[in-house]
Amino acid sequence: MKARVWNEQVDLFEITILEQLVELAPLSLSDLATDQSVDPIVLVGKALSKERVSSFRQIASNAFKSGAAMLLVPPFGDYDISSYVDTPASIRLVRRGAASDCKIIDPEWLARIGSLLRIRSDHYIDTALAAGVVCVDGEGKTTLLRFQPKNTTGALFISTLQLLSYTALTDESNRIALLSEVLEWKNVKSDLAIGPEDTASAPQPPTKEDISAVLLALCVLPSLDHNRLIEVMDHYFNKRLSDEALHNVLIYLESEGVLQYSDGQSHFKIVVDRLTQAIEDLGLHAYARELKELAQSSTEVLK
Question: Are 94 and 222 contained in the same domain?
């Protein structure tokens, strides 16, 4: 496997660790912004600086259009990641004490590499984006996020996990397994024709069915937690939404006042009165009441 890297980072310690797993393909920033290869791009975050905002936006846009994976790893030169990528909500990195607990919550990755890993991180990702969360730490804070503008595009993986570092807090087999999963990521829908007008188009409005499923799941949750929301819908409705579909529903519910987000919070807040009204408006009151009764009598999911 090959991985594209910035030619000015090839001598970094992190890239020498990467080279033990893949063949390096060094390119300039301008070439990374135009190269149509689907080989993953790996960038050490210390390259993030205000004078390179335009370059990084072009690189991310090119990766999305070509269907490639792009991985951003510590250490970081700037913590405001959303300045470098056009995202619908802020993505910031927040420093905390060193920790090694890493829990996989993406169901496909969980099945392949297991649930609990041990990989060091000194930061977590603070964002309102609920879709695309791959890993969380011991406190449920996001440590690996997959951002895709649409589910037919490539993806930007933002990692606060030290995937390219040796440390006593990290299990090497866990680090290599998770790093390999990111590098080998492929979008099965990336073969579809994607033009500039596709990536710039507005998100598709959520369906009534998807909105109803999320509303009912929210009515038995004390707060909006990505992992619990997925578990409730899967457990009670046998329903799983794509990252794009879930993101669109959450954005729609925010516009309807059911969810609120303010700077400094990592999650949306559920506005109970608006949630109740939305459930009433869709004629779901009886279903919500029955679901609450089921949830109260069972601790299998809501524990």
Answer: no
